[in-house]
Specification:
Blueprint lengths: L4 H26 L8 H4 L6 H27 L4 H24 L5 H9 L1 H34 L3 H17 L3 H27 L22 H14 L4 H8 L4 H32 L6 H12 L2 H34 L15 H22 L4 H25 L5 H20 L14 H21 L9 H20 L4 H23 L5 H7 L7
Helix pairs in contact: 1-7, 1-8, 1-13, 3-4, 3-8, 3-10, 3-11, 3-13, 4-9, 4-10, 4-11, 5-6, 5-13, 5-15, 6-7, 6-12, 6-13, 6-14, 6-15, 6-16, 7-13, 7-14, 8-11, 8-13, 9-19, 11-12, 13-14, 15-16, 15-17, 16-17, 17-19, 18-19
């Protein structure tokens, strides 16, 4: 590669980002009516098929690209199951959650929790979302920083800080309508980068390829049945917490068109599930001794492709970082600005407070600092950060959000106990093994501990507060929940000797079924539960 080429690529990335910022500003001016106040966060709820398709497709395609490229490099073809789990989650959100979330005027998970469980629950959940979304965004920021590091040799702290700062400037110009226009360009650039990389790596000469001696590299279950099951169950359970996608599809004008957009998006994502895994595997064949796929990928492309192709691939990687980070950081900052520090409705203030848009931009700065800090703390352990972020968010958000729709007897006290005990138990479980990314107490992932404890706390605290007697004749759904709990518990016992990771996931699922049965057994028949639910409704002011 010519020594000038890396700096030309850096200049092209800067020019591309500048073009996105210009497009974003123009979109904001064009849609000023839909971007005022909270319309800045939901786009006036006037999205169509094309807008939802673009936002959902590029969001998950960028995530799948980075995760599967690295996992395919390390573990082989079984990395494809990650993309399958993401597609499943996206389809479940559209099929079952779009209409109810749109009906309540969904803005953020933390806002929804606050409407049901009060201001303290809203602020706690908003703080959790604002903390964890930068952790989720970090993987793609780090991928872009490592790509630049591999090209020009700058130190990782410098490239990481510069990359994050540029992304903050870009995201800070965005509202929901700005994201639609900029994500369109990012989807084009990402698709072009993946296609060009695949074309030239496919044509790599046989002399450049080496055998890969990794057990299970070409097996569909090489990464482990337990890991595959954890991916599937984790993403299914997290569908109710997928705030970035929920914000996009809840902004659609017609729910049916929003659902259709997600279904078509799922078909497109199949390609983004297959190709990045192959790219990671081919990179491993070119550099079998390399330790990280994200670092080896640009070198592999540079070895077999001309400079113009490397430029297109670099733009694709950069677009993947922007496409993933923009909606995530924007969504996290939405909870920060609209729910954590925004004044409670009906309250008075002695001075003028910043509006939602300004608070959201303050939130972006805080999240940008978090991205750099957590990336530099343990940059070699993306898996640990992913576990940490998923664990904290699930422990705090899953149970109160599920109860919002499924169990009207959940109380404000129960929600607070759920969030605090869920987060605390999962952190303690992780701390018991020194916050390891791979070793857990009894081989049970702390995510399953947090989910189980938070759900149990919600049910126990709510029932204790209400003092409701159990039904003498349990309903059919109640009996079905208990039977399912017993069946899954039996399966968990059988898998203990096969794969302990799967054992923990099944125990969590069994516990959730049992808790659902207990909650249903305590729910009065008919409409009596509606009057009980009103007793704990939060009061304005």
């Amino acid at each position: 590669m010519h020594p000038v080429t890396p700096y030309l690529i850096i200049a092209a990335l800067a020019a591309y980002t500048g073009a996105l910022i210009a497009v974003s500003g123009r979109a904001q001016r064009k849609r000023a009516g839909d971007a005022s106040g909270e319309g800045f966060l939901h786009g006036g709820r006037s999205f169509g098929f094309r807008h939802v398709f673009i936002l959902v497709t590029v969001l998950w395609a960028s995530s799948i690209f980075v995760v599967e490229l690295e996992t395919g490099f390390l573990s082989g073809i079984s990395a494809v199951w990650f993309g399958i789990s993401v597609i499943l989650m996206s389809v479940l959100v559209a099929a079952f959650l779009l209409k109810p979330f749109q009906r309540i005027g969904y803005l953020t998970n933390s806002r929804m929790i606050g409407e049901r469980y009060g201001r303290a629950a809203q602020r706690f959940s908003a703080a959790v979302i604002a903390l964890t979304f930068p952790i989720f965004a970090m993987s793609n920021v780090l991928a872009a920083a490592e790509f630049i590091h591999a090209l020009v040799g700058w130190g990782l702290p410098l490239t990481l800080t510069l990359t994050t700062a540029i992304m903050l400037v870009y995201v800070g110009q965005s509202g929901m309508w700005s994201l639609v226009y900029t994500q369109t360009l990012n989807l084009i650039a990402l698709t072009a980068g993946v296609a060009v990389a695949a074309w030239f790596l496919l044509r790599a000469p046989a002399s450049a390829l080496h055998p890969v001696h990794v057990q299970g590299f070409h097996s569909w279950t090489g990464i482990g049945i337990g890991t595959i099951a954890v991916w599937l169950l984790m993403n299914v359970l997290n569908s109710i917490s997928a705030q970035a996608e929920l914000q996009a599809i809840a902004a659609v004008r017609n729910p049916r068109r929003g659902q259709a957009a997600v279904y078509v998006s799922a078909l497109v994502l199949i390609a983004f599930t297959i190709v990045p895994v192959w790219l990671g595997m081919r990179t491993r064949e070119i550099f079998p001794q390399a330790a990280k796929g994200l670092a080896a990928f640009p070198a592999a492309v540079a070895q077999v492709a001309p400079p113009w192709a490397l430029l297109v691939v670099a733009l694709g990687v950069w677009a993947a970082a922007l496409a993933w980070c923009a909606p995530l950081l924007f969504s996290g900052a939405s909870s920060f600005g609209a729910d954590l520090f925004a004044r409670q409705p009906g309250a008075t203030a002695g001075g003028r407070r910043p509006d939602v848009r300004t608070l959201t931009r303050y939130g972006l700065i805080v999240q940008g600092v978090l991205v750099v800090v957590v990336s530099l703390l343990r940059p070699e352990e993306l898996a640990w950060w992913r576990v940490f972020g998923q664990t904290i968010r699930s422990a705090a958000i899953f149970a109160p959000t599920a109860a919002y729709f499924l169990w009207p007897l959940a109380t404000r006290r129960g929600a607070l106990w759920s969030m605090t005990t869920g987060v605390a138990s999962s952190l303690l479980w992780n701390a018991a093994t020194g916050f390891s990314a791979t070793r857990f107490l009894f081989a049970v992932n702390p995510m399953w501990v947090g989910l189980t404890v938070s759900s149990a706390a919600l049910v126990a605290a709510s029932l204790t507060q209400r003092g409701l007697p159990m039904r003498r004749r349990p309903s059919a759904p109640c009996c079905a929940s208990f039977v399912s709990a017993a069946a899954v518990a039996a399966a968990a016992a059988l898998t203990w000797f096969v794969d302990p990771a799967l054992h923990g996931a099944l125990l969590c699922l069994s516990s959730l079924f049992a808790l659902a049965g207990l909650a249903l057994a305590a729910t009065p028949p008919g409409r009596a539960h509606a009057a009980l639910a009103e007793q704990d409704a939060p009061r304005a002011g």
